[in-house]
Amino acid sequence: MFDLQGGKFFFMEHVRAKEGTVMYYIQPPASIPFHYFARCDVMNKCYENIKAAAGFEKVELDMFEADELVHPTAIIFFVWLLKRHVSGVATK
Question: For the chain, does the N or the C end have fewer beta carbons within 10 angstroms?
């Protein structure tokens, strides 16, 4: 078996909207068609698993809004539901 020591995991993913925002309440009913048509989880909270369950020694992350996703095409296809993102580095 392999015993991997050290290393970095770089990640960026769309995540659940900030609690208390309008988007936070729109995402749950939208999650069904998004999952069916795009195989996408609009209520993703992957950063919780990266921080807690994956066993990394250090996790640095940054939450941000991808404002670029609010344009006519994004509005038509509801991509604006994926506006909030997390990016970061996890160190083993």
Answer: N
